[in-house]
Amino acid sequence: MANTLKLEIVTPESKVYSEDVDMVTLPGIEGEMGIFPMHVPLMTQLAAGELSVRKGGQEFFLAVGEGFVEITGERVSILTDMAIAAENIDEAKAEEARQRAEARLAEKLDDEEVAMVKATLDHSLAQLRVKRRHR
Fold first, then answer.
1. CA 22 to chain CA centroid, nearest Å
2. pTM reported for the whole predicted model
3. From CA 49, how far away is CA 64, in angstroms rounded?
4. What is the rounded average pLDDT of the residues 33-48?
5. Residues 76, 7: contact at Cβ < 8 Å?
6. Over the chain, what is the mean pLDDT?
7. How many Å apart are CA 38 and CA 113, to the nearest integer?
8. Taking the alpha carbons of 38, 39, 42, 46 in that order, is the dihedral positive or negative?
9. Which domains does the chain have, with CATH numbers?
10. For residue 2, what pLDDT band results from cuts at 50, 70 and 90?
C-alpha cells in the first residue's frame, strides 16, 4: 500500500511542482477536497483558492487558479492557469490587481471582457487569502 501520492502541478508556463507528498487539500468547484494515497480515481474542476500540501509533517500552501484535477490512487495531477507558493505572493501587487479588476467590472464590458476581468479578480482574491492567512 502506497504511503505517498505523486503531486504534479502544471501551468501554461511551467511545471510548478512535482514531488511525493502525504496529502493534498484542494479547492474543487463543489468544495474543499482532501486527497490521501489510495483515493478513489476521479476527475474534477479546480476552483480558484488555496491548495495545501502536507509532506513530512510540514504544510505548504499555494494560491491556485481555475483548472482541472485528475486523481488516481497514486497520483494527483493538476492543470491550472495559476499556481503561486504563499511565500512568493506579492500582497501589494495582488491588492492592486483586485482593485483594478473591481473598477473594471463597474465599466460597460462585453461578455468576453467580463470573463477575463472576473478571472483576474479570482486570481488576486485567491492570492490575498493565501498570503494573509499564512503571514
1. 18
2. 0.88
3. 5
4. 95
5. yes
6. 93
7. 41
8. negative
9. 5-86 (2.60.15.10), 90-133 (1.20.5)
10. low
